[in-house]
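The following block was generated as part of the benchmark described in Methods. Ligand: D-xylitol-5-phosphate.
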Amino acid sequence: MAPLIAPSVLSADFTDIAGAVRLIESSGADWVHLDVMDGSFVPPITFGSQMVRDIRAITDLPLDAHLMVDNPEKQIESFAAAGADYITVHAEATVHLHRILQSIRDLGVKPGVSIVPSTPVESLGEILHEVDLVLIMSVNPGYGGQKLIPSSLAKVERLVQLRKEKSLSYLVSIDGGVNRSTIESVQKSGVDVVVAGSAFFNSEDPAAEVSVLRGRDRFL
Ligand code: DX5
Ligand code: ZN
C-alpha cells in the first residue's frame, strides 16, 4: 500500500497559510501536518491552537497536530476544540503518557505518540494499545530541512512488526528528512504516513512530489 502523504506547513510561508493549505489540497496530498513548537521542548516557537482552528475552517483534510511542547496535558483540550483529527504528544514531554493518551481519546480525538531519535521503541511497550498513530522522528525535532537519521527506519520496521504481533491497528508515521533521495528506503520500512516539509514546499511541482513520495513516478 502506498503511504499517506502529510505535508508539514512548517516549511510554508506563514504569511500565506491559506495558500499553503490550498496547495496541499490541490497536490492530492492526504493530511495536513501541523508542527506545534513551544520554545521549551524545542527551541523554536511556531503556532498554537488558533492556527489549527483557522485551518480547520478552510479544509476537510485530516489535521495531524504534532505537539513538540512540554506539559502537553495543558494543551490537548484547546487543540481538540480547534478541530484536530490527531493529537500527537511526545513520550519525552510527559511522565503521565498513559493518562494523556486516554484524555485525548476522551476528547473525541485520535491519540498519537512520538519519540525523538534517542528514545527506543521499547519505551512505548506499555501504551501501544492506547494509540492510533506512532510518529517516529527521523531527525531531532525543531527544524525542517535536516538529514534523515537512518536508524529511524529500523524503528518503523519494529513498530510494524509489533503491531502484527500484538494485533493492534495504529498507523506508523515518519517525520523528518524524507525526500526523493530517501523515499525508497523509507517505503521499504513499511511506513503508513510520510510527513514532508521542505521536500513539498520547496518543490516547483508539489503534486509531482506527492506522486514521488507515494512511490509512483519515481523517475520524474
Ligand atoms: C521537525 C518537524 C517536521 C518537519 C519536517 O521538527 O516535526 O515535521 O517539518 O521537515 P522536513 O521534511 O523538511 O525534514
Ligand atoms: Zn512534525
